[in-house]
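Task: sequence design from structure.
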């Protein structure tokens, strides 16, 4: 056996060890049918203080009893949990307090005293008593739902058996460093705020569909907002006050999740990534191992770290592909984890290594007994240059020997022109850094091409000697792997705000011009720098919007807006030798025999996984003899690969009809896979294979990511769509799944088919939109005319579930012609919606569509119409900074000083939001009030 194949099988062993024993699938002989899912919606869950939270309960349609898995979330409880249910679990998905269908007031993670620990405890104990429950409960979830798990676990609910809390830092400082808002999180905050305002009946953008259209256009305004404590009161609902209170005292930490580990009795499984801004330096895992209350929690907790960003275990992140080995099937791992702890299955979870890491560069997985690695050794590299290390083409070097002579490099940091985060307003991801090569405010130091490889695993540390002419500033360092072709992939990064160099709880300004030693602990990583690659260290003073800009002043930067340019000097050599200390992992020599021993220890599992990947390949190539041979050797016909595809998925995608039949005859699950076989046949418009799959059990109403009927209009011919409908895909008022795509794609042929099959042209989709409403929202005039010709009701009787008419949508989309046609047919120009009691003129003002506003006013629209908060169109034009609409309304007689039911004038609406154009126009026309 070759070394290369042996190493491959070792990796394959890893994947199977994670996936084996996860899914109790139906027997291949058909004697046992797969479990179906029954969902109970909005089940009330009483809390100890009388508040009612709401949960969806997903349960198997028969059998039992089953353990219960609980997820509590602020993001909306709707999700497909069928994989867990079919594995023999009841799943409770609950809206957290004050979110969506749950009562009470929502508390964000800037709030010091919340109900979340008690709510979690009560929910776990309630779940244990559910009909059909074994009484054993596990919790799961990523990010904030993981935070909620740690809070409840410290109260030690007696029915809790295990946790799977992924990707959350123990301390708020790890997520919101350096003691301020990270602007890249603004889209996330703004999205949360929609439901907060809706719950509290606060005027604003209170529907998700409006937020999706409006917020991207306002993002730059909010990202550059200064100071943070002056955010408008409605930005984050009532939690704006909690946020600004924390910003005034950011040295306090309302989380301290690690402090609860000493009271936690159950083990936790954590899956996170090297690029995950929320990995928290793995502090929770380390604290559990050392301080958890029980031996089971201390010895049973596990940590898996891959090359991923936040809440994503795919192979590609940013513009970097880490190869097929990088994929991880999180759901399969969770099922296996809970099978052991809640069902008592002997599936090897207890034998798994405490830590499993992905070594980038080598792109391989490896088991470890500890984190951090105890065998890592320090390897120090010093920076050096001829005084011009600015940009990669400068003279900056990383060297082994300490430079004897003292030298410096300088740059200017201008917070008005910060170094841009290459991931933008998304969560941080690995990126090729070459696009920043021309910036003079980045110092670059790199080694010569390596003659031998070098693995770095752990937290690199930079000892930085620097001075600034400002009383405060930021220092950012980034470790980069430079490939021979020039690709410069970031490996790890770190930063320090100068005033917090001694700790977040010990702020101290610097003396301008004083040389100070900073110790910067970089984020954890594992990377093999391969032969021919270079190790590079970048030093700069900003990374925006991933981090807020330092203003370079002595003021409280959360409460002050002044920005000052700083002159920065980095020292190297002699007594001020800036260096990076790398956690170097010596690589022991591995022989063919040692690899064979590891394979032998893996037993049939590794050979099974290796053969399974060969089965995927054979299915893709249509190699039927190879398929038969592998199946005869006992390879699992349904094993998922790195893309969550089965061999049958590959055969369908490749159009190998005989391979499809061979695999189905062998018992392949025709409904398995991230994108199931039927959906792949639809993608290829392969009606023959689609029909064959349906005949052999493929579900035309398959729930989850890609319902077939919803997918069909984007790729399939009308004949295939008709096949799906004839097989029941449009039953139970589900034809909207097809007409949404038909309208988006302009597929009139499919829409006509749906009408022939009995669809009501004025039906509504899951979000309450009618076909005409969707076409209007998308601005698709051709489809609007088509729908009108087919009989779509155009008057105010045709409303979606939010009460919006075609006139409202015309105002949103800026479609004058539709507005005119609606009114020409006798439509009421002042018809109200069911959300805000908006008229179409309110919507035209909100979305800034002056042309439609003119049409509406010409047809008698009431410019003084008040919504449920007493806001007139003028107020919404002020709220969204629409000066042209304000001019129009005032010219048509709107009172510039009219007040809302809250006593606000339009100027007082505009001022807190700093809508400068609106403020100028209002004041020009005599608006009073405000400051």
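Answer:
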């Amino acid at each position: 056996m070759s070394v290369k194949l042996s190493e491959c099988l070792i990796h394959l062993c890893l994947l199977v060890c994670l996936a084996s024993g996860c899914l109790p699938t139906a027997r291949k002989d058909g004697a046992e049918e797969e479990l179906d899912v029954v969902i109970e919606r909005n089940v009330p869950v009483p809390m100890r203080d009388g508040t009612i939270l709401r949960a969806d309960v997903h349960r198997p349609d028969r059998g039992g009893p089953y353990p219960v898995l609980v997820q509590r979330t602020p993001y909306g409880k709707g999700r497909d949990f069928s994989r867990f249910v079919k594995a023999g679990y009841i799943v409770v998905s609950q809206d957290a307090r004050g979110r969506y269908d749950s009562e009470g007031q929502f508390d964000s993670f800037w709030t010091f005293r919340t109900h979340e620990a008690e709510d979690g405890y009560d929910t776990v104990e309630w779940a244990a008593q559910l009909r059909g429950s074994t009484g054993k409960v596990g919790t799961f979830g990523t990010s904030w739902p993981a935070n909620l798990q740690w809070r409840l676990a410290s109260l030690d609910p007696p029915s809790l058996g295990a946790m799977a809390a992924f990707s959350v830092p123990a301390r708020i400082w790890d997520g919101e460093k350096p003691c301020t808002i990270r602007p890249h999180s603004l889209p996330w905050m703004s999205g949360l705020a929609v439901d907060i305002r809706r719950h509290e009946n606060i005027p604003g953008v209170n529907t998700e569909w409006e937020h999706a259209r409006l917020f991207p256009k306002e993002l730059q305004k909010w990202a550059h907002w200064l100071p943070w404590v002056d955010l408008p009161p409605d930005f984050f609902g009532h939690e704006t006050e909690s946020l600004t209170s924390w910003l005034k005292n950011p040295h306090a930490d309302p989380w301290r999740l690690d402090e609860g580990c000493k009271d936690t009795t159950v083990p936790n499984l954590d899956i996170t990534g090297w690029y995950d801004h929320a990995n928290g330096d793995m502090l929770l895992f380390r604290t559990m191992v050392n301080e958890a209350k029980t031996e089971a929690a201390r010895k049973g907790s596990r940590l898996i770290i891959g090359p991923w960003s936040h809440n994503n275990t795919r192979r590609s992140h940013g513009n970097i592909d880490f190869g097929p080995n990088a994929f991880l099937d999180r759901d399969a791992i969770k099922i296996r984890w809970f099978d052991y702890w809640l069902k008592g299955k002997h599936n090897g979870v207890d034998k798994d290594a405490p830590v499993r890491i992905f070594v980038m560069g080598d792109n391989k997985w490896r088991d470890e007994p500890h984190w951090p690695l105890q065998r890592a050794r320090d390897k120090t590299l010093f920076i050096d240059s001829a005084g011009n290390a600015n940009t990669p083409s400068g003279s900056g070097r990383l060297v082994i020997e300490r430079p004897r002579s003292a030298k410096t490099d300088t740059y200017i940091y201008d917070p008005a022109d910060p170094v841009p985060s290459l991931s933008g307003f998304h969560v941080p991801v690995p990126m090729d850094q070459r696009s920043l090569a021309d910036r003079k405010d980045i110092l670059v130091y790199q080694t010569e091409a390596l003659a031998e490889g070098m693995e770095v695993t752990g937290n690199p540390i930079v000892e930085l000697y620097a001075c600034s002419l400002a009383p405060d500033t930021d220092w950012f360092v980034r470790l980069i792997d430079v490939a021979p072709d020039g690709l410069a992939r970031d490996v790890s990064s770190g930063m320090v705000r100068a005033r917090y160099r001694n700790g977040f709880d010990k702020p101290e300004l610097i003396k301008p011009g004083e040389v100070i030693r900073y110790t910067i602990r970089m984020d954890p990583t594992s990377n093999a720098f391969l032969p021919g690659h270079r190790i590079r260290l970048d030093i700069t003073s900003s990374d925006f919007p991933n981090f807020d800009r330092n203003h370079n002043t002595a003021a409280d930067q959360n409460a002050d807006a002044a920005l000052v340019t700083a002159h920065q000097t980095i020292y190297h050599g002699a007594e001020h030798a800036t260096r990076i200390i790398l956690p170097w992992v010596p690589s022991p020599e591995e022989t063919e025999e040692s690899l064979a021993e590891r394979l032998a220890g893996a037993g049939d599992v590794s050979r099974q996984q290796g053969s399974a990947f060969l089965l995927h390949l054979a299915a893709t190539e249509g190699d039927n003899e190879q398929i038969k041979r592998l199946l005869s050797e006992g390879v699992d016909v349904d094993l998922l690969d790195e893309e969550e595809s089965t061999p049958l998925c590959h055969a369908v995608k490749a159009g190998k009809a005989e391979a499809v039949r061979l695999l189905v005859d062998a018992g392949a699950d025709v409904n398995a896979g991230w994108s199931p076989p039927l959906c792949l046949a639809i993608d290829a418009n392969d009606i023959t294979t689609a029909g064959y799959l349906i005949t052999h059990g493929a579900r035309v109403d398959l729930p989850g990511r890609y319902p077939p009927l919803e997918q069909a209009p984007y790729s399939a011919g009308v004949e295939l769509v008709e096949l799906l409908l004839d097989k029941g895909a449009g039953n139970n008022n589900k034809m909207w799944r097809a007409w949404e795509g038909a309208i988006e794609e302009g597929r009139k042929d499919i829409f006509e088919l749906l009408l022939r099959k009995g669809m009501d042209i004025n039906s509504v989709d899951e979000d309450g939109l009618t076909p005409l409403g969707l076409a209007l929202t998308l601005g698709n005039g051709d489809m609007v005319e088509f729908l009108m010709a087919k009989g779509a009701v155009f008057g105010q009787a045709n409303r979606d579930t939010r009460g919006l008419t075609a006139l409202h949508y015309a105002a949103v989309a800026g479609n004058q012609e539709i507005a005119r046609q609606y009114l020409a047919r006798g439509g009421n120009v002042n018809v109200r919606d069911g959300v805000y009691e908006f008229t179409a003129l309110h919507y035209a003002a909100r979305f800034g569509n002056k042309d439609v506003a003119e049409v509406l006013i010409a047809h008698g629209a009431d410019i003084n119409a008040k919504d449920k908060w007493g806001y007139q169109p003028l107020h919404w034009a002020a709220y969204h900074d629409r000066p042209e609409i304000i001019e129009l309304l005032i010219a048509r007689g709107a009172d510039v000083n009219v007040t809302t039911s809250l006593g606000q004038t339009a100027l007082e609406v505009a001022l807190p939001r700093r809508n400068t154009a609106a403020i100028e126009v209002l004041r020009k026309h005599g608006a009073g009030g405000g400051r």
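DSSP finds 32 helices and 25 strands in the chain.
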